[in-house]
Design a protein that fits this description.
Blueprint: H1 2-7, E1 14-17, H2 20-23, H3 27-39, E2 43-46, H4 56-89, E3 101-107, E4 110-115, H5 120-131, H6 137-147, H7 159-167, E5 174-178, E6 182-185, H8 194-204, E7 226-228, E8 235-241, E9 247-253, E10 262-264, H9 265-278, H10 283-331, H11 337-361, H12 368-380, H13 382-388, H14 391-401, E11 406-409, E12 412-414, E13 445-455, E14 461-471, E15 473-482
Parallel strand pairs: 1-2, 7-11
Antiparallel strand pairs: 3-4, 5-6, 8-9, 9-10, 11-12, 13-14, 14-15
Length: about 475
């Protein structure tokens, strides 16, 4: 409009508006635009409010009308803000529902929020996978995108949007009222339970150890796991097309100065399955594992129960402290805004840490016998599990058993350093394997730290975290299995 008036200043004498408050609801902006137009020789004229700008009384009236318009706009804004804050205090969302929720049937004069039948399961899946700590955010995003997760526009979710989803407490059915009043329970159904949500926050804050990263290797699950027996370089894998048009897969040493190992894909994997089939622990070892796990789990469970009670009491104290802080700032006016913000940030940060500790400790009751039976099955059926798993889980399994990799030379598998799981507790007879003992450790002293995920043949994922140590006898075995 101003550009038009500037270009046509010779033919435009007045700018006619219905009312002055229709022209601008901000007094400063009104006078600024009026002065700009006056520079072009154009006057602002109200069709319903005749004002004589040439007289002092007319200019006063014009200023009063502009101020009234600004006052009315500010008053409407305050009323809308108060109304929205009241709605949030009742547990209702005042903005568009996040991905995973949709607007449901109207309840009187307000709309309800219900889980999206198409996207809600994808949101739950995302939280559950990421809470395990076994997958990076990009991996979970890839998995859930393949399952069908799309944003409100039907496009794939970006990494930034996905991080916002994992951080959003709305999925707990929590509605933030304001910075002073905190949040309340919403009127809608939560998509994620509190324990899972705060475990996700713990992983995002790097407060829990995330499993080492490994990438899916497609058609070559032993790539970068099997090492060249001559130079120690990881083997890579490629497909080669022969003259007859058929393709053959090969594992080969990537070191250009060595090239000491090249073997057919099917041959190496068949030999590796046979190698796993020979790695069967003794019944004595399995019994030691069961006894140690039961003892350690019982002790850890008792400590966790005590820790949960302490954390809950501290959380109640923090919430009471926050209520007192709000009362002192909002109602009693005994502290200034700077002190309020500092104390509020401290309380919220500590409360978040307590909730994350609770999420770590409040695991659902475990069927420990069933989990130990599963562990025994994995140890005694490694070859069968590897054969029935996909490429990604095959790599996870072999990295669990051999975290330092496996040397391969002339059809023989061996290790030059700590073999990992199968070297602990003397699982194998010395003459039956080419696995090396852990360096700098005596025969009766073995150590292992393992974090793994095994995809069993019936499609369930078990996460096994354990720390094993033995010095003459079993001193410590920390095992936590999550389903």
């Amino acid at each position: 409009m101003i550009s038009f008036c500037k270009r046509n200043s010779r033919s435009v004498a007045s700018l006619v508006v219905y009312k002055l408050d229709r022209f601008s609801r901000n007094k400063s902006a009104f006078f600024a635009v009026q002065a700009t137009l006056a520079g072009y020789g154009i006057r602002v004229v109200s069709a319903t409010e005749p004002v004589d700008e040439d007289s002092p009384v007319g200019r006063l009236l014009e200023g009063i009308l502009a101020s009234v318009g600004e006052f009315e706009s500010d008053l409407i804004g305050e009323r809308v803000k108060a109304s929205m804050e009241h709605a949030r205090s009742c547990g209702r969302l005042t903005n568009a529902p996040p991905l995973g929720y949709i607007l449901g049937p109207s309840l009187g004069r307000r709309c309800s929020v219900i889980p999206d039948p198409e996207m809600a399961d994808h949101i739950r899946f995302s939280f559950e996978k990421f809470a395990t700590g076994l997958y990076r955010m990009s991996e979970v995003l890839d998995m859930v995108t393949q399952r069908g997760l799309r944003n409100q526009r039907g496009k794939p979710v970006t990494k930034q949007h996905f991080r916002y989803i994992l951080r959003n407490p709305t999925y707990l059915a929590r509605v933030a009222i304001s910075s002073e009043r905190g949040s309340v329970q919403g009127e809608f159904e939560p998509l994620v339970d509190e324990g899972t949500f705060y475990r996700v926050q713990s992983v995002l804050e790097d407060r829990r150890v995330v499993a080492p990263h490994w990438t899916t290797v497609g058609d070559f699950p032993l790539r970068r796991v099997i090492l060249c027996g001559k130079c120690g370089a990881p083997l890579t894998g490629t497909w080669t097309k022969k003259e007859n048009g058929r393709q053959y897969g090969y594992y080969w040493c990537r070191d250009s100065a060595c090239r000491g190992t090249m073997v057919r894909k099917d041959t190496l994997e068949e030999r590796f399955v046979g190698f796993l089939a020979r790695l069967v622990p003794s019944q004595r070892t399995l019994q030691l594992l069961r006894e140690g796990a039961l003892s350690t789990w019982t002790r850890a469970h008792s400590e966790a129960v005590a820790g949960v009670a302490t954390a809950r009491a501290r959380l109640d104290d923090l919430m009471a402290e926050k209520v007192a802080l709000v009362r002192a700032f909002v109602h009693e006016h005994v502290i200034d805004s700077e002190a309020y913000e500092l104390d509020k940030e401290r309380i919220e940060q500590e409360a978040l840490e307590v909730r994350m500790r609770l999420a770590d400790d409040e695991y659902e009751e475990l069927d420990i016998d069933r989990l130990l039976n599963t562990a025994s099955y994995v140890l005694t059926n490694a070859a069968r599990i590897w054969e029935s798993s996909g490429a990604e889980n095959r790599e996870r399994l072999v990295r669990m058993f051999f975290p330092g990799g496996i040397l391969y030379e002339d059809g023989i598998f061996r290790t030059a350093d700590n073999t990992g799981l199968f070297s602990a507790f003397d699982l194998l007879e010395p003459d039956e394997t080419n696995l090396a003992r852990p360096s700098r450790l005596e025969r009766e002293t073995c150590g292992l730290e393992v974090r793994c995920s095994i995809q069993l043949s019936y499609g369930r994922t078990w996460i096994w975290e354990q720390s094993i140590a033995r010095q003459g006898q079993l001193n410590k075995l920390a095992g936590v299995f999550r389903h």
